[in-house]
Specification:
single chain, alpha/beta, seven-stranded mixed β-sheet, 9 strands, elongated, disordered N terminus, disordered C terminus
Length: about 300
């Protein structure tokens, strides 16, 4: 493949010039903070271990800073953009700055939460600077909708990165930690300074790496059933699981029975459990007749 020109990536002046030409003012509502540093996007691509045969999906490409860096390396890149103006402008930016790679780029103008199929070959990697306000639901949706995604690297708010990568027993271990671990091995993969964004956010950013499990979690419970236990356990995280799961099980006694059958102490709390233990609890839920459902 032909190497792109050294100045193909967007620098601070390029980003501002593009934004001005498009009349784009980054909005807090959509969590828009554009990366203005070429070294940073190349670092993200490197940490994501993007290969020349990868088909990458990117969510929220914005003005195209990371998109261009991905196109330098990947076989194909498909970008999912919800913003009308940004979606309309991105193909022209790619064509202008990387004409020899433009046929390797596809755009999906949609809300990522509603995307269930993508053009071209199935994606093998997800790399994205995710809007902070929707990072977790978008990440989980993409992992569920596209099981072909083997590797993921997302840039999110530092606190969200901590939650996603937290191990059981950690103070910040919670719903995002368990649900992400259902799909993948999750770890922190670095920090990103505020000065590489425009406008500079008032929070720090972190990188999270997710490598999909080579084999799905061994359980007879469905993802929906396991996630229902997780949601119930953390909705009242200060309570013991016997109490927190009473509504889910139909009664505190039924919750205790499921916990004991799963080999989990009824006095334990959600933040101490692995995703495997949540799955075992889900397996042991007894079907309750409607009229017997009580606290």
């Amino acid at each position: 493949m032909t190497s792109p020109a050294p100045d193909a990536l967007l620098g601070p002046a390029d980003v501002r010039e593009l934004a001005t030409a498009l009349g784009v003012r980054p909005t807090k509502q959509r969590g828009q903070n554009f990366v203005i540093d070429a070294n940073t996007v190349r670092r993200i691509v490197r940490i994501a271990q993007v290969h020349p045969d990868d088909v990458v999906v990117e969510v929220g490409p914005g003005l195209g800073s990371l998109t261009l860096a991905l196109l330098e390396v990947a076989d194909r890149v498909t970008a999912v953009e919800i913003d009308d103006v940004l979606a309309a402008a991105l193909p022209a930016t790619i064509t202008a700055r990387m004409p020899d790679r433009a046929d390797r780029f596809a755009l999906v103008h949609s809300d990522a939460m509603h995307v269930t199929e993508l053009p071209g070959p199935a994606p093998t990697a997800l790399v994205a600077n995710l809007p902070y306000n929707v990072a977790v639901p978008v990440l989980l949706h993409m992992l569920e909708a596209f099981p072909s995604i083997e590797r993921t690297l997302v840039m999110v708010q530092s606190e969200v990165a901590d939650r996603l990568a937290a191990p059981p027993g950690s103070k910040v271990y919670g719903v995002p930690s368990v649900k992400a671990n259902w799909y993948a091995e999750v770890k922190r993969a670095g920090a990103i300074g505020r000065n590489v964004f425009w406008p500079a956010p008032n929070v720090d950013s972190g990188l999270v790496s997710l490598v999909r499990r080579t084999e799905p979690l061994k359980t007879t419970a469905s993802r929906r059933e396991v996630f229902a236990v997780v949601d119930a356990a953390f909705a009242q995280r200060r309570k013991t699981l016997r109490a927190a799961l009473a509504g889910w099980a139909g009664s505190a006694a039924a919750a205790e029975a499921a916990l004991v059958a799963a080999g989990v102490s009824p006095q334990a709390r959600g933040e101490s459990l692995t995703v495997e233990e949540f799955a075992r609890i889900a397996e042991h839920k007894q079907n309750q007749p409607q009229e017997e459902e009580s606290a």
